[in-house]
Amino acid sequence: MNDTVMNLNSRIYIAGHRGMVGSAIERCLRANGYHNILGRTSGELDLREQRKVFEFFRKEKPDAVILAAAKVGGIMANMSAPAEFLYDNLMIESNIIHSAYKNKVQKLLFLGSSCIYPRLSPQPMKEEYLMDGKVEPTNEGYAVAKIAGMKLCEMYNRQYGTGYISVMPCNLYGKGDDFDPVRSHVVPGLIRKFHEAKVTDAAEVIVWGTGKARRELLYTDDLAEACLFLLQTYSGNGFLNVGMGMDVTIAELAEMIKEVVGYQGKVTFDKTKPDGMPQKLLDVTRLEEAGWHYKTELKDGLRQTYQWYLDNYNLFNGGGTNA
Ligand SMILES: NC(=O)c1ccc[n+]([C@@H]2O[C@H](COP(=O)([O-])OP(=O)(O)OC[C@H]3O[C@@H](n4cnc5c(N)ncnc54)[C@H](OP(=O)(O)O)[C@@H]3O)[C@@H](O)[C@H]2O)c1
After folding, report:
1. Which atom of ligand 1 is nearest to the CA of 185?
2. Over 80: is that where the pLDDT of 244 sits?
3. Which of 3, 68, 88, 197 is packed most tightly, with the most Cβ within 10 A?
């Protein structure tokens, strides 16, 4: 592999540059002096369309690719559209990885997810536990697609000698998150609920599930730094977990968000709603041995995310005034 691929003049294509992860990676690249960055919205280039993706690569000839485009969502979205989660993600990653190979892209970083691991995996989850059991049924389509994307990278490396890296991040949160009440993940969903309860003086906030499920959460700007670090330094063929290496219960997380938002009411748990996987904690030994460690503590990241929500409040409320 050519170590000069990631130089400051390299032409770097970020697929999904407007998303939470893609935009954090773009901020990180620019802050580190990379300026030759390419991006296309889904309206400009639908990555499910093979011919258009191939043409884009042929014309633009990127040196490196960051694959942060995907159909992403929380439990409700995954359960109501499992076929779309599987199809869209398989198409996006197959089209990009194959076009990258065909157009001699030497470095590519694929964003997977910790939901690739078996539902009842021993904790913390080591990379070698992959496919030792059944994945969580509520996001099976998404998980199967992410396993396929990671395997494509590994097998292209093996057969064609490419240098494609896959990372499996834990749950992420941060600036640019999706605060939509239907689509959102746990952190933005709870921030919005607590904020709305605060401004309407609601007596209680109802949180889905028992509150006992445990989640590991990484601030997206930290993930972006990990991705750049790996693109610059990592040349192994095995995928890497990316996380803090520690987790909290949903009840503890709800308490933290309640405090960050400044809500004074009560928190109750709706035990009729699904918890998802009981625990999702990554073993990050491989990443730490490669030389990377997280920077942002959970409470600090939640504060910054809530501030971002306040600053962008009208984005999520049909153009209303800031709270
Ligand atoms: N969020 C998390 O907690 C989390 C955790 C682990 C891993 N990840 C992984 O990180 C990656 C990015 O996630 P995210 O949270 O940043 O998601 P996101 O905010 O929803 O962004 C996804 C991006 O993908 C693009 N996209 C979706 N379908 C597309 C299509 N058919 N054609 C072209 N572009 C398309 C969208 O582009 P437009 O904006 O132009 O429509 C969007 O910017 C995903 O691979 C995800 O699996 C996320």
Report:
1. 3
2. yes
3. 68
